[in-house]
Amino acid sequence: SSGINAEYGDLLMIFFKNGLPGNDNPYIINGDFVDRGPASVEVSILLFSLSLLYPNSFLVNRGNHEDVIMNKRYGFTTELVKKYGTLANRISKGFEGVFRVLPLITVVDNSVLICHGGVSDITDLQYINQIPRHKYASILRPPMKTNADGEEEVDLIEWRQMLDLLWSDPKAALGCEPNTFRGGGTYFGPDISGGILDKHNFKLLIRSHECKPDGYDVVHDGRVITVFSASNYYEAGSNLGAYIKLLPNHKPQFIQFSATENTKQLPLCSRVSKVESSALRDLRTQMFANKGRLLAAFQSHDPEGTGFISMNEWAESMSGVLNLDLPWRTLRSKLAEQEEDTGKIKYATCFTDGNLEGSIANKQVTETIYRQRNILETIFRLLDTDNSGLLSREELRAGCELLAKHNGSISLSSDELDNLVDTMDINKDGEINFNEFLESFRMVDNKFANGNM
Question: What is the pLDDT of residues 270-300, one digit of tens each?
């Protein structure tokens, strides 16, 4: 994702839709996460914290707004003054120090080149890799060096390499020319991008730097992609935000979203709670799908059958079975009960969440459904034709009509379809997200198991 532009709601929306970052769910943030919006500090602290927590799977590139001069022009410095008063200058220096050392480029699997702006006819990746980028507090005010005559001058080659990476935009025509609109960087054509990609055997160049109505844009014969993650950038309804999921073959999948005004107006604790609840729901789903193995692991530490094991034994079992490197001791209060006197874990309480297990009679059916989550997600993505992450009434209707063509016994009237949508739309917002879709399958099997259908 990229171009968050200090919009905390958009960042949380991405985490809500795509899942929280982790070693098994990597992220690349492609610059421009400060300025313009109201929450540069909050966005930055969250990104930096995740980068420290997951140094190999949460990466943050530098954009043209991670720049001390840009911050003075476009809002970040003003935000610091409003929030921290006389401490603002000191805090600004701290942010500046981090911005200086952020990477300019990330390469994924030697196949996908990711940078904030773009490239030019002089871009040299080997040269860029050697640049001491910490010297550049601002790309707009490059550092001086002393030449052979003792005079100070700008290292134009070095400066242009960085400037072009952060400030350039693609164009349809061939060639490369100065970006007069921005006053820095270049307009680069398909021959320029293609030459660099071919030279290094890369498939794609993913960049950001421009607001797009749909949140993304694909040019240069599909080899250059722009992604912009700040929805409603100019005003409400002006554009969608988007992020890219790279599939195993490096094929990009575009996920669009819009952080609604209602979402943006929620208190910070409520927005964080929504993300946390989604993550815990997914975690409990994995726990239930592996209930048999978890119980076996717990019981191996409880040969007397007391129903209790130590915190260390519980954490070890959770980590070993689920193969997830999580802070289990911190999460324990949300996952299992602990006996006050002994501190031991009552491990059976890991599986008492009614939203997951339902009745004892149908536990095998429900467990099977949760194990088939990937299949259900594939069906959901096929129905979600606009890749919005939500199923509309029209998309569900089209899916049912397609199913009817292949199975003459299945046919839904308009009223029946409306009833189906209303039933699946648990939060009654008019659309169906994946959690509602998955939950609907579980509820249907509950009714079958209880003889209600």
Answer: 444 444 565 677 678 778 878 888 999 999 9
Token pair 């043209």 is found at 64
Amino acid identity of residue 146, one-letter, is T
DSSP state of 228: -
Concatenate the DSSP letters of all residues of 263-287 into one string. Answer: HHHS-HHHHHHHHHHHHHHHHHHHH
The values of phi and psi at residue 163, to 5°, are: -60, -45
Which residue, chain included where needed, has tokens 């952020």?
Answer: 102
How far is the C-alpha of 350 from the C-alpha of 353, rounded, in Å? 7
* Chain centre to alpha carbon of residue 137: 27
Catalytic, 116? Answer no
Compute the distance between CA of residue 168 and CA of residue 121 in angstroms, rounded to an integer.
11
Q: Which tens digit of pLDDT belongs to each residue from 3-38?
A: 687 688 889 889 988 889 999 899 999 999 998 888
CA distance 228 to 209: 7
Of residues 65, 116, 209, 220, which has the active-site annotation?
A: 65
Judge if pTM exceeds 0.70: no
Is residue 295 within 8 Å of residue 318, measured between CB atoms?
A: no
